[in-house]
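Weekend entry, working from home. Most of the wet-lab plans are on hold until the incubator is repaired, so I used the time to fold the two sequences that have been sitting in the queue since the last round of cloning. Logging both here for the record. First:
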Amino acid sequence: MDNLNGASLQEPPIKLDPLLQDVREIAINCNSVLKDMIREFEEPDISKYRLEFVFIDSRGEIEKGRGSGVMREVLSIFWREFSGSLSTGAAEKVPCLRQDYQKPQWQSVARVIVAGVVSIITLLQAFITSCLWGEELPCKMGQ
């Protein structure tokens, strides 16, 4: 069975050390965050970069803000828009299948989840790996 990047599920699909990755700036229009994020995250190799988000304002100019605050704002807006238009349910949200969202778009959503988790959680690599892939994988990686 393969994961989103085409790799075996027995190996992590991304590097969990964001300090060693190349930086990639992603410009997101403040009026179309959901659409822009899905388009940007359609690229399978996006997980190889440490992402830095910037907003494009309603006049088409790049805003000055950078860093973790902008990233949190982008992810927050993305999930708010996702919840309102691509999911259903009150207490728990479940993605709804739509004709205009096919496999590449849902893979993009999954990559946004991974990018959000990896960039927000700053815990030891072994701990995160153990949580995501179970206790057996870290043992096998050490062999």
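Second, folded right after the first finished:
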Amino acid sequence: MGKATNHPATTASNMPLSEDDFDVIVFKILSYAYACVRGDVLPYHEKAYEIAGCNFTYFKAATLSMLNDGFINEECITQTGATYLRDDNNMAKVKSFLGGAWDSVVDDAVQATRCIKRNKCVPSGEKR
């Protein structure tokens, strides 16, 4: 058995999470993609890479894995991905690990995506 840890979130193997864990990167990408869809804007690949906070090879491995698992498609999150994000125990642990500030990061990323996609900033809730 491993040594007890004071870290609030652990992976399935009870190892402490870190910012560059695969599950953390997957959670960040999926939560951004889900927030984009809910905000009526298609996710922007470069913005997803930015908020994932990892190197490009790691980002590509995570996105290809999610694509192969049916969590995302060429444009956005799928129902399978949304369900995984909502119901998976590891995703819940990652959400706890990242804390409440993560919601603000995602909201800002969606607003930035809205600006990028439209070439201007449009206040949230305003019609196109």
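Plan for Monday: verify the second prediction. The radius of gyration is 15 Å.
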